[in-house]
Amino acid sequence: MSELVSNLLNVVLILVSVVFGAALLTWVERRLLGIWQDRYGPNRVGPFGTLQIVADMIKLLMKQDWVPPFADRLVFIIAPAVAMFVVVAAFAVIPMAPGVGVVDLNIGLLFFLAMTSLGVYAVMFGAYASDNKYAMLGGLRAAAQMVSYEVFMGLSLMGVVMLAGTFNLRELVLAQADGWFIGPQIVGFFIFFLAGIAESHRTPFDLPEAEHELTAGFHTEYSGMKFAMFFIGEYVSVLMTAAMITVLFLGGWLGPGWLPPLAWFLLKTIALVLLMILIRGSLPRPRYDQLMAFGWKFMLPLSLLNLLVTGALILI
Amino acid sequence: MKQTTGLGRQIFLVWDYFYSTLVTLAKVAGHTFTKADTVEYPEQMPYLAPRFRGRIVLTRDPTGEERCVACNLCASACPTDCISLQKTEDETGRWSAEYFRINFSRCVFCGLCEEACPTYAIQLTSDFEMAEYERQNLVYEKEHLLIDGPGKHPDYNFYELCGKAVSGRAKGGGCLEAEPVNLKSLLP
Fold it and tell me: Is the predicted ipTM greater than 0.90, yes or no?
């Protein structure tokens, strides 16, 4: 019974902190982008503007729950729920520290990849149900981009799997006790990082929602809390990518003993999130064909080469 | 950039893109330590240039009389037709505006009325905080426009040099006016 309670507590705490962290991330991102563009960002509501997320939430909650008359109603409503569900579900397998984490799957890595693959359905559903030309184009781009970047996202992780010999994320972390995988798998780290940004469709890979060309891409017709769920889903997926890189390449919770394991995990994750925001703040968006060419002609061969060399080195 | 194919060239290009991306990231990250350009407006007033064009006022003579002679030049110069006025004349012969109305919801603060004004009556000030909740409140009548002072030209008094008989004073009686010329004495 007490085990059940502690498990439930674990689940609820992680869920709440992930969603809250994602909401806070919207403020962190706007603030940091502001600082990097020589302005302040939202600094009015509450201490340092942190209550901005509350203000945004109130605003989004008060909005009319509007479904366009030409939309496919059921799919239109399901899409944001899918977007939110898959990223939060993928968070279940991430081991944050010994004893902290929702579930200890022996195929955790595959589960993570499956959930990120499902993420494309949210975008496609939303785009299809909106019956809007911008959403349509955004959905097409998103589908093509996510499917093609998934290919080498999975391949880039195989090097890590080969080195550790397991799909279990906890064992993957423990396998890095004598050296983080970022050393031998620097190429895999680089590829997975870019693929992760592309999967959470953020700048420079935000072509599905490219503001200048497609107004808001696949969520053009969304407003209020449905939009907020897409939005929070995106930020949860940012957190998830950062957490996943931490687990797979940066030794998860491992670190010198003067900080608790959870703190090490959070520290590494936050550093990666900041790096992703910095990338958003500095890099321009490529053209669509450039994005696909970069994926298929550069990243895929590179990840295959990485796989080949890793395999050869393990055999020798 | 002669050769665009070949493995060496390709590798160089990849490195080049990678390197320039890293430089970009470093330069943007460097902005963490630069000062923000933001002027936090309600607490901190932005710098306004000396010739800033804001809310329009009607000024008065050094003697405290209205400068406006209701010549209508400002209304004709106005590109948005936001000024309307009507001339009246008092018993001393002085012209002034019976009503003078500026619709600030149309005004573009171009300053052409100020340039057109022959008596320095209409002037633009550096006040720009004129927001209203009701659009109708942006229509300013004469009593809202008139200020007590002379504004930008403190010593200028139109009726002292215009050569018009006013307030019982004969033509040429103003302190800046010359005696009227007798046209007949000018004949050769």
Answer: no
